[in-house]
Design a protein that fits this description.
33% helix, Alpha/beta-hydrolase, AB_hydrolase_fold, single chain, 8-stranded mixed β-sheet, alpha/beta
């Protein structure tokens, strides 16, 4: 596995590729790997996912198909971009948890869309390679951002939310209640709730068969822990089970029994196999 870092508009963007990537001319699947809350692109579960992805892609290489390029960056207010650690904590230590976690995941989704505009120009300025498909695999906070991107970014055709949740309010209301916080201002400002309801995936007509459903034709793999109490499956279940991707799309979801808020090897293997099916 080879890693290179390119700085784009002040963002450290880490690129992971196979050993033969540099001499290949095949089209590219570019997959963003987004880390969890309180972690970074260099630490935590994301670094248990990236090497197996690249190693499997290397073994899978053939003359046909696509090359895999995995891209990692720090979320806003994480890693090299950390400004206020309190803003990354939950309601017990941060009264603005609803505000902060939403703006971090929504902002990171915007960062990914921004990088999609310019990454090819930085990496292949002479047009020597072409990125033909974009994907995102995210863990926990990164899984929340992966859902936002799958819904809002037409270029993202592959999404793997891992122990993440598409329904932010359904996740956060019980979390606030457990800390004795009611769904009302100042912890739940009406202006913020309005934005979340307008921009979160559940606000979209995701069960529609018409062109307005942004998930149609996309490949979605959802990986959740049955014993996860931090991001419980019950917060995602209605959305995921009702999600329609149409006849050309793929939707799979796996509930790992006995698994909490963690990414054990079977989850990693499921993500790897799903990506290999796209190469």
């Amino acid at each position: 596995m080879k890693r290179t870092t390119v700085i784009i508009a002040g963002l450290d963007v880490h690129i992971y590729t196979t050993k033969t990537f540099a001499t290949s001319t095949k089209p590219i699947l570019a997959l963003f790997a987004l880390h969890g809350r309180l972690e970074s692109s260099e630490t935590g579960s994301i670094q248990n996912l990236i090497p197996p992805l690249v190693d499997a892609a290397e073994k899978h290489e053939s003359e046909k198909g696509k090359d895999l390029m995995v891209i990692a960056l720090d979320h806003r207010n994480h890693g090299t971009r950390l400004r206020d650690n309190t803003a990354n904590l939950d309601f017990k230590e941060n009264a603005n948890h609803l505000h902060d976690m939403w703006t971090i995941q929504a902002g990171t989704a915007q960062d990914v869309s921004f990088l999609m505009d310019y990454l090819e120009a930085y990496l292949f300025p002479a047009g020597e390679r072409s990125i033909v498909e974009w994907g995102v695999a995210g863990i926990s906070l990164g899984g929340h951002a992966a859902w936002i991107l799958a819904a809002a970014e037409p270029r993202v055709t592959l999404a793997i939310p891992i122990i993440g949740c598409p329904d932010y309010l359904k996740l956060m209301v019980p979390r606030a209640a457990a800390s004795g916080i009611a769904m009302r201002p100042p912890h739940f400002p009406e202006s913020l709730v309005k934005v979340i309801r307008a921009k979160g995936p559940p606000a979209l007509p995701y069960t529609s068969k018409g062109h307005e459903n942004p998930f149609l034709g996309k490949k979605i793999l959802v990986l959740s822990g049955e014993a996860d109490t931090l991001v419980p499956w019950t917060a995602s279940q209605v959305f995921v089970e009702g999600l329609e991707v149409g006849p050309t799309g793929v939707k799979e979801y796996i509930l790992f029994h006995g698994v909490g808020h963690a990414v054990p090897p079977p989850m990693v293997n499921a993500a790897v196999n799903f990506v290999l099916g796209v190469l």
